[in-house]
Amino acid sequence: MPDRPPLLQAEEVVKHFPAGLGASVKAVERVNFEIYPGETVGLVGESGCGKSTLGRLITQLLPVTSGNIFFEGVDLTKLGGEKLRQKRRELQMIFQDPYSSLNPRMTVGDIIAEPLENFGLLRGRAKDKRVQELLKIVGLNPYFNNRYPHEFSGGQRQRIGIARALALRPKLIVADEPISALDVSIQAQIINLMEDLQKEFQLTYLFIAHDLSVVRHISDRVMVMYLGKIVEVADSAEIYRNPRHPYTKALLSAIPIPDPDIQAKRRIVHLSGEIPSPVNPPSGCRFHPRCPIAQVPTPCAEIEPPLEEKARDHRAACHFSEKVPVAV
Amino acid sequence: MTAPVLQVKDLKTQFFTDDGVVKAVDGVSFDLHPGETLGIVGESGCGKSVTALSILRLVQEPGRITQGQIIFKGSDIVTMPDDDVRDIRGKDIAMIFQDPLSSLNPVLQVGFQIEEAMEAHQKIPGKIALSRAVQLLKQVRIPAAETRVRDYPHQFSGGMRQRAMIAMGLANKPSILIADEPTTALDVTVQAQILELLRDLNEETRTAIILITHNMGVVAGLCKRVLVMYAGRIVEQGPVDQIFKDPQHPYTWSLLQSIPRLDADRKDRLLSIEGLPPDLIKPPPGCRFHPRCRFRIERCFHDDPALMDVGPDQDAACWVTMRRALATDGEAHA
Predict the structure, then answer these.
(1) What is the CATH number of the domain that holds B109?
(2) Which of A188, B45, B122, B223 has the least C-beta neighbours within 10 A?
(3) What is the 8-class DSSP label of residue B264?
(4) What is the total count of domains within chain B?
(5) Domain check: are B75 and B213 in the same one?
(6) Dihedral, A208, A210, A216, A217 alpha carbons, nearest 10
(7) B270 and A328: CB-CB below 8 Å?
């Protein structure tokens, strides 16, 4: 891990949503991590694990229930009003659905110019020039600025969303499933574009996705989430070769590989049951009811395993991480 | 080889829209053999789902089958009276869809819906129907099937709903099960379980499966043979082992190169297929893939290639084929 200070640091971040009758959905529960300048951190997990909520907490689109999020040393959770608004320029987001995240009544030029206007940065000719420049950067025709979103394909709309995110020259971009809604042949275009932009503008990415093969490709480090907790963090090659949490192992074993010989030899790690409700998560390790190597009741159902260093730069939250069988 | 259970011959399905005629399926032919697992892969709009819907004559207005034959047990589904098609649907050929939640009726018990599928084709006393429903739920590995049979769809998880749909599909012991993106809406761990279930059911019941998907990995895990579709046509077909190892159509090859692989050790730049799939109202002349193809030659611009023999049991519709493309590419770089 680099010895420079992290660009973003989450400390004991918690998000609970009220679920009626005094109950609450524990979407994110005491999460800690860092993101260093210039790296791409992948955040993976299945639906409902809290990964999108965590993305929204980081960009302050949702307020935290408790905990701190430091961005360049400043605690975003303590900021409000104008100070937060100014900080947000450096934190932008790309959304999953390029259809619902662009206003259909605005021209593409206006969509991309909106952040510039919000911060009163550029006007008139200079603004138009910047919009055209942004369109060119994301690989679109700069003279398309007068067209409306419906005139574009899904992949092109995602490029528009990326241009909007780049408009304020942010440092960190949180991309929430940016390619899941796109066709296979278009996905590679967007991944390549994001990689090129990262190099060109020294961007830092938090890349949220359910597809571990995409995440492994784009990320330097990968965090795996399960039921509101980060269960494993490691270098992306390391996490694939040497998973130290049984959930990561199960997730890896389930991802289809487009090679019939390999597919025939692989074994799926079966998880029993379903993902429990985040309203009332299991005691101890949240994964224990489905874990193939859990020792119940003790320690797995009683003591929550901390996310701790199992090898160099490799953290996992499991009492028996040494028993997780190695690669697929 | 045994006689095919289903033969699709030069199928054309078109949609008559205000903007023009969309040639969604444009001359597709293939055979399906008993007990076979056949994958149809391609991107949205390539015609894979419309092909499947055409087989059961479920294409909705303004769509119509305009040409071709679909021969099932000696008769042509395309020209059959409606009643005869209804007898085949769900009995001989069953279909499951991407979104199990919208395919199930939310106000009826799951068991009742399975019984309904059976009773549509045969008279069976209620008690027997119920016990068959329980048995089917067990077959698709739903735990505590005896009590779960009385549950409503909302009490099932996404994976269980898809299992219930599969149970319904199998209720009349069909000879063909068509699964249209059956795992696309599911999480990966659940997807893996559903694919494993389909694989086991195919072995146990010898029901032939047509799996429609955009995911090459899913095909690799379940199917023995694959059709690759692009812009309404089959561009390559053959055994899965062969096609994944030695794809001959540039589209198949590019698709396989463009997906990041979990087992890839180096982080090479992904190969991206530039441009967009063509407009099917006015498809490009010549080979439909030529505007996006990096290996095109002059002939591709005006001469439309038919499927040609390119390997053992493997056909591709390409004037160049990857064998030649990569050979000349090597020379160019040497």
Answers:
(1) 3.40.50.300
(2) B122
(3) -
(4) 2
(5) yes
(6) -80
(7) no
